[in-house]
From TrEMBL:
This is Palmitoyl-protein thioesterase 1. SUPFAM superfamilies: alpha/beta-Hydrolases (SSF53474). Pfam families: Palm_thioest. GO terms for molecular function: palmitoyl-(protein) hydrolase activity. Belongs to the palmitoyl-protein thioesterase family.
Length: 319
């Protein structure tokens, strides 16, 4: 495929996949008092923003304030690929994911407040990226991993086009043909977790990120830090999900190649049954929680996130 066409196609792919800025219903943030002093007895929290957002967008900053109101004195770090907000946002679209994960491993290792371990919360694609950190580096270690609307089994398609939207239709066709090209797999972030069940062999041979993260390549070598290293894995799916396709990917599910509407749930996945990444062991221990939140992709209402934050973050740091 011509490079320019592929770039245009992935740009069109980006528009429907791009999440709204986190908590868009909130008013414009006002100047707030200095947060309470860091309390070293409270387990810290690390966030990784989603597609189209940045580490310090107004929505992310407002959410961090609400987290600190919930757990007074909790240290919160928002992962960034670049200190410049515009470049950090761009890194959600363009870049080599394996290099980005390595960068974050070094970033978290050098934050003094995290050295005793932390809880992690990923929004949309940030969820599988934090899982990649945990499975490959985990120093400092993750205690509880929480993911909102993440694509743990990848995306198999882009959202359906509106009738008559010729550019969207062209983009869908182009992405199908070019997503596993060398250029896409080294430079386009979403291509690196595109998992088309109708092109599964091509996915395994060409995709440089997700098959390795999920140990799908024979001999299915477990990651350095399997998921049963976690205390809890909390997987949140949205009831009216239209961005993540298939929506069950947020619960470690996928769809069969012969049926675009059927779902293969987590416990029927080969990676679960054969326990390639420690998911089954963690689940049998009672450490996997599959939750539903009302609304569309990343429509984070307080009724959704607050009970999760109260239960799985802000615990007493283990010393």
């Amino acid at each position: 495929m011509h490079l320019a066409l592929l770039l245009c196609a992935l740009g069109a792919l980006a528009s429907p996949l791009q999440q709204q800025p986190l908590l868009p219903h909130l008013p414009t943030p006002t100047l707030k008092p200095t947060p309470p002093p860091y309390n070293p007895s409270v387990r810290p929290l690390v966030l990784w923003h989603g597609l189209g957002d940045s580490y310090a967008s107004p929505g992310m900053l407002e959410f961090v304030d609400m987290l600190r109101d919930t757990h007074e004195g909790m240290f919160v770090h928002s992962v960034r690929i670049n200190d410049d907000l515009e470049k950090d946002q761009k890194a959600g679209w363009f870049g080599d994911l394996n290099e980005q994960i390595e960068q974050v491993c070094e970033q978290l290792l050098n934050i003094t407040e995290l050295q005793g371990g932390f809880d992690a919360m990923g929004f949309s694609q940030g969820g599988q990226f934090l899982r990649a950190y945990m499975q490959n580096c985990n120093s400092p270690p993750v205690h509880n991993l929480i993911t909102f609307g993440s694509q743990h089994m990848g995306v198999a398609d882009i959202p359906m086009c509106k009738p008559g939207d010729i550019w969207c239709l062209l983009a869908r066709s182009a992405v199908k043909r070019g997503v596993y090209s060398s250029y896409a797999q080294h430079n386009l972030v979403q291509a690196q977790y595109f998992r088309d069940p109708k092109q599964y062999d091509t996915y395994l041979s060409s995709n440089r990120f997700l098959p390795i993260l999920n140990s799908e390549l024979p001999p299915h070598t477990p990651p350095p830090f399997p998921l049963d290293t976690l205390n809890s894995l909390v997987l949140i799916r949205f009831t009216a999900e239209q961005t993540v396709n298939p929506p069950v990917s947020s619960h470690f599910g996928s769809r069969p190649p012969e049926n675009d509407t059927a779902e293969i749930p987590m416990r029927e996945q080969e990676l679960y049954r054969e326990d390639w990444i420690g998911l089954r062991k963690l689940d049998e221990r009672g450490g996997v929680f599959m939750l539903m939140c009302e609304g569309h992709h990343m429509q984070l209402e307080k009724e959704c996130w607050e009970p999760i934050v109260l239960r799985w973050t802000g615990g007493k740091r283990e010393v």
